[in-house]
Each structure stands twice: as C-alpha cells, then as structure tokens.
Amino acid sequence: MRQLFFIFLALFFITGCSFYPNFAFMGKPNYHYSNVESKLKSIAYEWRKTPYVLGGNTKRGADCSAFTQKALLEFNAKIPRTTVTQLNSGIRVSKSHLKAGDLVFFRTGRGPNGMHVGIYTSKGNFIHLSSRGGAREANLSNSYWKSRYIGARRYIR
Known about the structure:
Blueprint: H1 2-16, H2 35-46, E1 57-58, E2 61-62, H3 64-73, H4 83-87, E3 91-93, E4 103-107, E5 115-122, E6 125-129, E7 135-139, H5 143-146, E8 149-154
Antiparallel strand pairs: 1-2, 3-8, 4-5, 4-8, 5-6, 6-7
C-alpha cells in the first residue's frame, strides 16, 4: 500500500506540471537562447514558487514590479521600484522591436494602479510574476495580454 502511495504521488507530480504551464523552458540555460534570454529564464525558474504579495520584494513574496526590478538588477540595470515609474523611465521600444530583457506593460485593472509588468524573452513570450503566484511565461498574442498591452521600455543595452 505504501508503494502505491509513492507511485501515485510521483505520477501526480509528473502530470501536475501541466498546472504550471511552460515551466520546462525555465531550467538550466539552453544553447538556443541568447545569453540574456537564458539568464532571464533561469531567474524565472528561481522565482517560480514566489507568492504574489503586493508591495513585497523578496522571493518569499513579491509583486510584478519587484520581480522585474530584481531580475534586471542581475544585469546591473538599476530600475525604479513601481510599475508606473518603470513605465515612465527607460527607453521606449515599439512592440515590433522588442529584445530579451525589455519590460512589457499591461493595463489589467488590478492593484493600486491597474497595471502589470513582465520581461520580454523572445518570440512574443514574456515572463512575469503572476498574481496567482510564481513566475510564469505568457505570450503577447494571448487574447488576455494582447488586449491589455500598453507599451515597452528598455533598460538593458
């Protein structure tokens, strides 16, 4: 009976990965990715279990702008703390010229300013600290994100 329990538990965790879509990409750096993209995906992997806490700024609990601030600090880019100040700083980038490391901004209607921020990786994908908890990957062409996209800023040159 005990062996069955452990087999069931193992199967649960193996198949349970689908609950957190697209985490397979966030493992160790892959030679297909640029250095920036690879490092961003490793950072996202480190933050995969971080609960979303408004105003928080550690891996024990953080919000989206703290995640972007801490991630870009890994590239020696010091950026403002809040989503609004991050959007109002940096170099404006058009959606068609996004590069790995650019911040992407959305008007979600949630939180004190109704905004959300993530970090572009490549091929229309970005990583962000989800309000459901943990760093996740999403795509700009997803209907939710596409309709809420408001702009991008570059801090890494």
